[in-house]
Amino acid sequence: MVSSDRDSALNTPELTDKMRSEWDERARENARHYIATGQLNWNDEEYFESGRENVRREILTDMGNICQGKDPKQMTVLEIGCGSGRITRALSEVFGQVYAVDISGEMIRQARESLHDRPNAHVFQNNGSDLSILGDIRVDFAFSYIVFQHIPSRQVISSYVRDVHRLLRPGGLFKFQVQGGSSMDAPPGDTWLGAPFSDADAVTMAEECGFEPRHRIGAETQYFWLWFFRQTWWERARGILRKQGWQGIPAIFR
Ligand SMILES: C[S@@+](CC[C@H](N)C(=O)[O-])C[C@H]1O[C@@H](n2cnc3c(N)ncnc32)[C@H](O)[C@@H]1O
To answer: Given the CA of residue 19, which atom of ligand 1 is nearest to it?
Structure first.
């Protein structure tokens, strides 16, 4: 298990309560500014255009990995930490169905308001550590941007990654960003500065959660992007056997 000293500072229920109340407060004060800090006062057009720009940069340039031959309009996608719907709106313009979660009830209230004209966007307040609110839906692609960089517990981040594995179809991609680096520190339970990941931490988390960490860009920077592809059970079994140096891997697993 990937862990850090800061993980032990607060237990998960205490931490999720703190994350929820502090993000609710930020959302009431100025949600758009805390989401996209580049401006203090965003108008609707600029704000949602900034979400489209993120989707152009991170998704439309990467449709091979994301869609794997599927028609995007036939795909169901998941967003973790949707805030007030900035990127959710842009995702709903590209994909068939979008499911999105956020820990903050106030963010979700604002997201519902701004997505009222997007019937294919479904947003839910979640518990801040997993996707149980979504039941057993199946998703073709999962995405998260500037969310895990605010979560101070690697255990919580791993819990999300494990739950994406539960919902994602085999072979599907979870593309997400974490805080890179390893030396940075923050006060225990700080809900602005998230747990940092080194490249080795990211690989360990992928292996523990049943993913192949196929591409990784930006280690050591704030924008450490990870491409985790959901392994099938036999790919996972083969990886474990190889790691243990098992010589007699049956032909079917090779
Ligand atoms: C900087 S905003 C980014 C919002 C959105 N991803 C975007 O780019 O427009 C971070 C969001 O993550 C949410 N968040 C923080 N901790 C969370 C957690 N543990 N689980 C789910 N959402 C969380 C916050 O409520 C906030 O809406």
So the answer is: 16
Cα 115 to averaged position of ligand 1 atoms, centre (Å) = 17
DSSP states of 207-253: HHHTEEEEEEE-TTSS-EEEEEEEPPHHHHHHHHHHHTT-S---GGG
What CATH code is assigned to 5-253? 3.40.50.150
The structural domains of the chain, with segments of one domain joined by +, span 5-253
Residue 194 CB less than 6 A away from ligand 1: no
Q: How far is the CA of 111 from the centre of ligand 1 (A)?
A: 12
Dihedral sign, CA of 147, 150, 156, 162? positive
Q: Is 87 in the pocket of ligand 1 (CB under 6 A)?
A: yes
DSSP 78: E
Q: What is the pLDDT of residues 4-55, one digit of tens each?
A: 545 646 788 999 999 999 999 999 999 999 999 999 999 999 999 999 999 9
For ligand 1, say whether the CB of 103 is within 6 Å of any of its atoms: yes
Cα–Cα distances (Å) from 9 to 3, 5, 152, 153, in that order, read: 12, 7, 10, 9
Ligand 1 atom 19: the closest Cα is on which residue?
128
pTM of the model as a whole = 0.93
Question: Does residue 106 line the site of ligand 1, with CB under 6 A?
Answer: no
Task: Point out the residues of the chain with pLDDT beneath 70.
Answer: 1-9, 183-187, 247-254
Distance of CA 42 to the CA centre of its chain: 24
Distance CA 102, CA 127 (A): 8
